Amino acid sequence: MSGILQAMRSNRGHASSACQSRMCDRLLAPSHRIVIQFDYSIIMETADAAVGFAALAQETRLKLMRLLAATGASGMAAGELAARLRQAPSTLSFHLAALEQACLVQSTRQGRHVIYAVRFAGLRALFGFLTETCCNGRPHLCGDLMRLLPEVSQEVRTMTPAFNVLFLCTHNSARSIMAEAILEKIANGSFRAYSAGSDPRPAPMPEVMEKLRVLGHDVSMLRCKSWDEFTRTNAPRMDFVITLCDTLDGQVCPEFGTKVVTAAWPFPDPAKFTGSAAEHATMINALYGMIRRRLEIFVSLPYASLDSIALKARLDELGDPTKYTA
Hints:
By secondary structure, this protein is α/β, with parallel strands linked by helices. It folds into 2 domains: 2-156, Winged helix-like DNA-binding domain superfamily/Winged helix DNA-binding domain (Arc Repressor Mutant, subunit A); 163-318, Rossmann fold (3-Layer(aba) Sandwich). It has helices spanning 2-11, 16-28, 46-56, 59-71, 78-85, 89-101, 120-131, 175-186, 206-214, 277-299, 308-318, and strands spanning 35-37, 76-77, 105-110, 113-118, 154-156, 163-168, 191-196, 240-243, 261-264. The strands form 3 sheets. Strands 7-6-8-9 form a 4-stranded parallel beta sheet. The chain is elongated, with a radius of gyration of 23 Å.
């Protein structure tokens, strides 16, 4: 580390704005697809580090960075970010611009949406600046704080597009909530899960939320919502729409786009379960298992080799009630 520090000290003295531009260019030079070898000799100037930390020194931006970090390379659409953080789009745009200028987030356009993701190389450079003088080059005295950083030698700059999946049931309080939580957990960034209903309840079913919590699912963002939210102009574009009940009380689903792949996977309604508390819990467990089994197959389908017709057939097969019952 001391050798790197010496080399960096000898190169300092350039203008702050020029250094910031050079650092972004070196870390994140535009290309169709490049692999970035991160080198801590690219550590930023003091003034540039101040810009980075100043960009983070705001509550909404910290929440924004944490939310984007959770999505990994797939990122998230600006409209969804605004909805999740309950911020006006214009306000969120201001915060995103500040983070992008500080080389902490990146954006790319996918269709009509702008997708944002964390620039992890920029974060490593920022945290590297904090720890480069660790114990005056003797990291054994403090456990080497640099080891707290992810040990990733390569970083692919291009973001991996994720499929958007919307699960529907009448009240959006149990089956579709389960499916949203399960897919978010098992998809590893390849899918973004959403749920809605034609007649949403005020809140999800308590037994379902408790089951999800016990099994380690993040339930903080789960809520009952109308499918009208996903027909607005700033709503995320859906790739799949899957209904999880026999019928949506006779209602016709709204239009979610011309290229969306639809399927029906009918599951029993937990609201109609009868019996003792123990029997009800057993049925909730069984429902969770049926939904998870289908979704595990769903995420493993060979999407790159299937056209829309073949994909539709595979999804319809998953909806066969005689299969995948456990």
